[in-house]
Amino acid sequence: MSLNLDEAWIRNARTVEAFTCDAVFATPRPDARGALSAALLPPARDLFDALGLPISACGELPSTAVIGHEESLIRYYEAVIAILTRLGEPGNLSHPFPYFAVQPSIRSEDVSLTRFSWLDSVLETVEVLTALKDGPSAPDGLLWDDVDQGWAAHIVRGLGSIVVVEWNWEDEADTPEAASFDVERLAAQAEQALGRLTAIHGRLVQAFGHDYWSYRPPASRATPRPNAIRSFLDSLRRLGRTP
Length: 243
Hints:
By secondary structure, the chain is an alpha+beta fold.
């Protein structure tokens, strides 16, 4: 299903009055399955306990809980690295997803309003938060968008609000549900989240001497080949068949 910026989903977006915008660090969830996730859950529980957070909140760790307590997060990642190394999972140390993933997040009444399914690095999170931060000075229209397998997202400014919508573009039956946020309040929260994320990320890289939270560029200096999926989707987009 494709969306146009002038369609009714923008006008009919659900207005969210109370919300929290932040960057979140991924951790195993309490109901995580599999030997690897089960091995990583105890250090995650220790982390949430050290931060005074309920274990039920495991899965997404907001930067607001980390700032000022970076050493607890460092101890958690030390445990993650040790466990992945011991279990012979070096591949999971070479990219953010899933054990070093970072995502933008907007929540309301402790319910996540966003998924950002294919975002998992600091850079991608910074891009989204920057688009939200710059919303008040941006002209009406599309501020940010992305598309990948089974997922697409638009962030749009219009009528003094920021509208966020995510949907499965491959499913014609999927009905996008858009949420609308006050542009000034969302921008202020995004700017604060950016500051916290920058500080925390810097401290983590300093502690480990390595950036586990970002994708490393290829070793070759040759121009990298574009992602095959994105190239295919871009071709369809030009034909008007995708968002």
